[in-house]
Each structure stands twice: as C-alpha cells, then as structure tokens.
Amino acid sequence: MRVLGIDPGLTRCGWGVVDGRPGARPAAVGVGVIRSSADLDLELRLLELHTQVTALLREHRPDVVAIERVFTQNNKGTATGTAQAAGVAALAAAQADRPVAWHTPSEVKAAISGNGRADKEQVTLMVTRVLGLTSAPKPADAADALALAVCHVWRGPAQDRLRVAAIAGGIGAPVVQRTLPRWRGVSR
Q1: Are 65 and 99 in contact (CB under 8 A)?
Q2: I need a labelling partner for 53 at 20 to 30 A (CA). Which of 47, 71, 91, 168 fits?
Q3: Is 59 a catalytic residue?
Q4: 160 among annotated binding-site residues
Q5: What pTM was computed for the model?
C-alpha cells in the first residue's frame, strides 16, 4: 500500500509518501514541505497548496491520502488555516479519486512512538528509526507527514475491517458510492 501523508498548514504543509503493509517495515518514498508566503492572499495560498498536492498525487499515485485531523489549537487563526489546508488536501484527493483517512495527532504519536503525548523531537526520532533513514526529515512538518503515512499503513487496514464489520452488523450508516461528478482537471 502506498500512502501520502499530509500534515496540513498554510505556511508549511508537510508531505510524506510511504510504501508498506501491516507487520512489515515501511519504506519512505518521498518527503518534503509545501510552502506558501504569508504575503499572498488566502485564496492564492490555498490554490498553491491545491496545485502542489495535485502534483504529488499525480507523481506518487498513492492508494490513500492520510491527513491529520484538526481538533483545536490555542491560536484560532492557526487552527483555521490548518483546517483550510486540510480541506484543500482532501479536495485534491477526492478529485483524484483517492480515499482520505483522517488520523488524530495522538493516534499518530501513539502509532509511531507508543506514546500519544510524544513531542515533536520524539516523533522525528522514531520516524527516522522506523523508516531506516540516514538523517532526520526536516522540518518537523515533514517528519509528521511521514508519521501520518506510517500510522495509516499500520492501522488503516484494521480500521477499515472494523468499519465494514460494524456496518455489516447494522452499526453505522451504509457506505454510499460517490455520485458527485469529478473535476476533469485531475486525472488518475
């Protein structure tokens, strides 16, 4: 399974691509950060992010896109920008007909380090070790994106099976096929 992890942000949006399967050591395929200038109007920053995520989807052709679920932050402006960036990444994935998996920060930290309250340095250290990298990915946004991808490789298939079992048992809403037309600007 190939996973594109997205650590959303307007100024710095981390991305990381990982190949792997549950129970095996995953391999890093690519990592980086999409940057946008705070001097640009918001709509142009979001457009730049969309364009770059779309390019990553075309280049790496992931099976799924794992995005960090935004809860709350102390700075409401930062939380809003992060949520907007997450939405744009999810939109690009939907346009490319790629499923999106949402993971909480504590879920990702627990998956990669065993501690749901791990700090950024610990996450970066464990990402480096788990993926067998020769140097730590920088900045932390890039390491967080790789951690998201690893988290989904390890936990995503089990979560999917539990979701299907719950639906089969009458718990939750049935899965409805997408009926929205696809934007023709993004191809598989």
Answers
A1: yes
A2: 71
A3: no
A4: no
A5: 0.85
